[in-house]
């Protein structure tokens, strides 16, 4: 029995790691995210915590101003590698990691409306739980989401829909 449990846990942890890596491959950096930039063997080129502002630009040693907005961590990594390679380092080993995501917002008929830190794998129902759950007056069938960076206004969603950083969830009021 213990053997089966350990096999299950191993498979489960590999699945979580694969999901996190797939998320990071497609995730686009936005204002409010926190990044970590590590350059192997080069402490002066590593940044332990970098907050991305609305402008998306930050100062990087030797390369000057870089823009992180709407780039994947891999795209930003490639830009840093390209800039450092040759003049500064022969073969730079760079890692760009998202260590803190921009907030999601839950408004309307929840017990504690406001902003909450995004976590990978977050769904609408989990976000509502973070906000203390529905109030007694909540219309549970009228849950809307405004996607971050989308031109569209809010659209009706199911509780199982995925939430992305910067999204705004709105729970309407029931009339009965």
Automatic annotation (TrEMBL):
What's the superkingdom here?
A: Bacteria
* Residues in Soluble ligand binding domain copies: 104-148
Q: Which PANTHER family match?
A: POLYSACCHARIDE EXPORT PROTEIN GFCE-RELATED
UniProt key word Transferase: no
Q: Record the organism.
A: Vibrio variabilis
Per the UniProt entry, the signal peptide is 1-20
Q: Does the keyword Manganese apply?
A: no
One Pfam family in the UniProt entry:
SLBB
Q: What's the name of the protein?
A: Capsular biosynthesis protein
Assigned keywords, A-Z: Signal
Q: Which residues form the Polysaccharide export protein N-terminal domain?
A: 24-98
């Amino acid at each position: 029995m213990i053997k089966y449990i350990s096999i299950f846990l191993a498979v489960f942890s590999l699945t979580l790691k694969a999901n996190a890596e797939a998320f990071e491959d497609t995730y686009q950096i936005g204002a409010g995210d926190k990044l970590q930039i590590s350059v192997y063997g080069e402490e002066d080129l590593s940044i332990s915590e970098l907050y991305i502002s609305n402008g998306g630009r930050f100062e990087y040693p030797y390369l000057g101003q870089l823009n992180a907005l709407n780039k994947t961590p891999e795209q930003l990594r490639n830009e840093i590698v390209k800039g450092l390679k040759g003049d500064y380092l022969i073969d730079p080993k760079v890692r760009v990691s998202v260590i803190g995501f921009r907030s999601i917002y839950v408004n309307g008929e929840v017990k504690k409306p406001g902003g909450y830190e995004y976590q990978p794998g977050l769904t609408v129902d989990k976000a509502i739980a973070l906000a203390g759950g529905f109030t007694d007056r909540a219309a549970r069938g009228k849950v809307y989401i405004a996607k971050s960076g989308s031109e569209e206004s809010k659209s009706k969603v199911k509780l199982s829909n995925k939430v992305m950083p910067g999204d705004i969830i709105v729970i309407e009021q029931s009339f009965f």
